[in-house]
Amino acid sequence: MTMTETTGKDIYARYAEAADTRDALRAQLEREGLPQVTRWLQRKVWRQARALDALNRRVTTQRFVLRTLDGLGRSLTADEFRTAKAAIANEQLRDRIDDPVG
After folding, report:
1. Which helix (DSSP H) or strand (DSSP E) does residue 97 occupy?
2. Dihedral class, residue 74 (left if φ above 0, else alpha if ψ from -120 to 50, else beta)
3. Exposed, middle or buried by CB within 10 Å (0-12, 13-18, 19+), for 28?
4. Are 12 and 57 members of one domain?
């Protein structure tokens, strides 16, 4: 068997496998319908968006605290934190900074 024949058979096998997968997905889509698949994907995206937003809030809060601490050279009291947060002019950024726990 030559390398060309082996490569051709390998390509054909991959094509057959891809066609089988396509047919199985098509049959699943016909059974379940596009709206159900769309809703599932939409829920997945929403979950990921919520998780990303929560992570972004934590990062934003931590960066804010680190910058403030660096400027002061010490830890913040709760009153200092609230005062520094209130001094942020950008309302969207200010809303993204969570209050410290405790």
Report:
1. none
2. beta
3. exposed
4. no
The total number of structural domains that make up the chain: 2
The answer on 39 and 69 residing in a single domain is yes
Dihedral of alpha carbons 33, 34, 35, 36, sign? positive
In the chain, which ranges are continuous DSSP H helix? Answer: 3-32, 34-72, 78-86, 91-96
Q: What is the pLDDT of residues 61-89, one digit of tens each?
A: 888 888 888 888 887 788 888 888 888 88
The Cβ of residue 88 has, within 10 Å, a number of other Cβ atoms equal to 14
Tokens standing for 101?
Answer: 């726990």
Output the CA–CA distances (angstroms, integers) from residue 82 to 58, 76, 78, in the order listed.
16, 10, 6
Residues 6+ apart with CB under 8 A from 85: 64, 94, 97, 99
